[in-house]
Amino acid sequence: MLTLTDASKETKLILKWAGIILASLLVLVFAFRTLVLIKDTFFPTPPPKPTVLFGKISQPSFPASSVNKELKFSIDTLTGELPNLTDQIKVYKIETPKADLLALKTIGENVGAAGFENGPFKVSDELYFWTDSSGNFLKTIRVNIQNGNFTMFSPFYFNAGILSAKNLPKEKEAVNYAQRFLSNMNYLSTDFDLSKTKTQLISIQDGQLVGAISKASTHAYRINFYQKNVNNYPIFYEKPNESNINVIVAGDSSSSHVVRATYILQKPSKESSTYPIKTAKEAYEELKEGKAYIASFYGESSNIKIKDVFLAYYIGSKIQDYLYPIIILEGNDGFFAYLPAVRDEWINK
């Protein structure tokens, strides 16, 4: 018969072995995790190879560089070194607009909602324009009915009321006018990130638009709308401080206050493929060799200190097949240089 003493001994024995087994399991788990950590640290699993499903792709179409003089470059990053970029990135195809037999009618209704009621007037099979003669000067909007992109223009830079800036709205109101203008025409795309909207102060000098140096010299605002980041990378346009989608708002006596607009929207599709890309060091060497597109620089010196190198996507003013990855080198005095990120062997030149 099992006595109380025997039961106590057996219970202690069971607890002892249970503790040993549990401790052993914990040691094994810890050892396994340590081995995995060591393996991942010294022998990391290589990422999958780029898929390059589109084969060789065309290279980005950059405009002429904004600087013609010879420049000298040096590295002035926080670490004193160039950053390590990822070795591959997704390339996206650009959405192709679907054919729409009712496009002319629909666009006519959309622009009519913004006051462009005279038209349509045919320029070509793709281009039509409408006018708005209700204000102090004629406004014209020209639309590509295949992709919906448009330009709106007027001779506002000769208008005495606008040059006086007496009716110039406040900056926040100008943004609202620009958004309302696009919204009235069903052009305020869900592809926009409105939190990234930027305003530029514009001055009119001898019929030319230049950046205003102060609010006192401001005649108009350029409201720039930006597309959402793609895979956490920003989209850059031909000018780093200006978007392909922008609206100029001035002290026009009309209710809209919009006197000029450019709308070139190209959306990335869901179809993508990964491609190998250049290193930051390779991009820097190509910059020194004069192979980069200089998008911006307003300094007087020929010495450029590169303060940052990062990846982005590029959309130009011309229709393109892909959302192009680019490497951007940023320096002092508003210096921005763009280079195609995809390695040369996968670019058709």
Describe this structure in words.
The structure is a single chain. This protein has 349 residues and is an alpha+beta fold. The chain has three domains: 1-45; 57-94 and 269-348, no CATH class; 103-265, no CATH class. It has five helices and 19 strands. It has helices at residues 4-42, 103-112, 160-164, 171-184, 280-288, and strands at residues 57-58, 72-75, 88-94, 118-122, 127-132, 139-144, 150-153, 198-205, 208-211, 220-225, 235-236, 245-250, 258-263, 268-276, 293-296, 303-314, 322-331, 336-340, 347-348. It has a nine-stranded antiparallel sheet with strand order 4-5-6-7-13-12-10-8-9, with helices on one face. A hairpin with a 7-residue loop joins strand 12 (245-250) and strand 13 (258-263). It starts with a helix and ends with a strand.
Strand arrangement within the widest β-sheet reads 4-5-6-7-13-12-10-8-9
> Can you summarize the main beta sheet?
9 strands, antiparallel
Q: What is the gyration radius calculated from CA atoms?
A: 30 Å
Provide the helix percentage: 10-25%
Class derived from helix and strand content? alpha+beta
Query: Kindly state the mean pLDDT as a whole number?
Result: 91
Principal-axes geometry comes out as elongated
How far apart, in Å, are the first and last alpha carbons?
94 Å
Number of domains: 3
Low-confidence stretches: none
Number of continuous helical runs:
5
**N to C succession of SSEs:** HEEEHEEEEHHEEEEEEEHEEEEE
**β content, as a range?**
25-35%
User: How many E-type strands?
Assistant: 19
